[in-house]
Amino acid sequence: MEDMNKRLADLPKLAVEAKKESKKYFTNLKRRTPKNLDLVMHELHEAEFKKTDCLSCGNCCKTTSPIFSEKDIERISKHLRMKVIDFETKYLDRDEDDFMVLKSAPCTFFDESDNTCFIYDVRPKACSEYPHTNRKKFIQITELTLNNTEICPAAYNIVETLKKRLPMHSNKRVRRS
């Protein structure tokens, strides 16, 4: 836990330092997207989450809100034995992009004492897929991933590993031997 606290303390600085380079990397990656990008991302995601335990972190639950889809809202409302309108009124707001998000952070359903979730089995899809680094058509969510590197140590590590695994060089040809 102490190691994770240090990682979380260092993450904002590391992510900001790497952001410019990562943004440039993703721009080049979009220009020349390797056919195997999704496969590589899936491998990197799997490898990272073999060594990263989300329960030792919980930073995403402490700092951000997932987007709640209509299906999420219906499922969670039913689980909590609430009417949809009551659930929305009590817990959710519309953000500037017209998405339903939590009214506050940390997440209302997050238990900070042990980093668990009261609604884990019915949690929003955005939570179950976070940090989205193993998603198909990964190239479409590079901006989201860049933002997630500031919140999620695993996302940061995956992006840094990706840059080494699939190096991109702008405006210069790299001769491979």
Topology:
Elements: H1 2-31, H2 37-51, H3 59-63, H4 70-79, H5 84-91, E1 92-94, E2 100-102, E3 110-111, E4 116-117, H6 125-129, H7 142-148, H8 153-165
Antiparallel strand pairs: 1-2, 3-4
Helix pairs in contact: 1-8, 2-8, 4-5
What does this structure look like?
- The chain is mainly alpha-helical and about 180 residues long.
- It folds into two domains: about 1-60 and about 130-165, no CATH class; about 65-120, no CATH class.
- It is about 55% helix and about 5% strand.
- It has eight helices and four strands.
- The chain has helices at about 1-30, 35-50, 60-65, 70-80, 85-90, 125-130, 140-150, 155-165; strands at about 90-95, 100, 110, 115.
- The strands form two sheets. The protein has a two-stranded antiparallel sheet.
- The longest helix has 30 residues, at about 1-30.
- It is globular, with a radius of gyration of 18 Å.
- It starts with a helix and ends in a 12-residue tail after the last helix.
- The mean pLDDT is about 90.
Radius of gyration from CA coordinates:
18 Å
Largest sheet: 2 strands, antiparallel
**Which stretches are low in confidence, meaning pLDDT under 50 for 5 or more residues running?**
none
Strand content: 5-15%
By DSSP (H or I, 4+ residues per run), the number of helices equals 8
Distance between the termini: 43 Å
Main attributes of the structure:
177 residues; two-stranded antiparallel sheet; mainly alpha; single chain
